Amino acid sequence: MHQFSGVYLHGYSEESCYEIGYGIATAGYGAVDGIKKVNNQAVLQRLEKIVESISINAPNAEQ
Hints:
The chain is an alpha+beta fold. The chain is built from one helix and two strands, in the order ββα. The protein has a two-stranded antiparallel ribbon with strand order 1-2.
């Protein structure tokens, strides 16, 4: 069984639109050799910490 769990964030500032997405996609635990079961909640929390550290600077329109 395939599963996907994700989050998409959208923002608009100074006439520019931004989108960041992150998530987990699986081919199914036990369905493919080498795939290990993970704690989805723990992985998403780690990804959230990474996203929280992102800083986006608006492009300089003069360039």
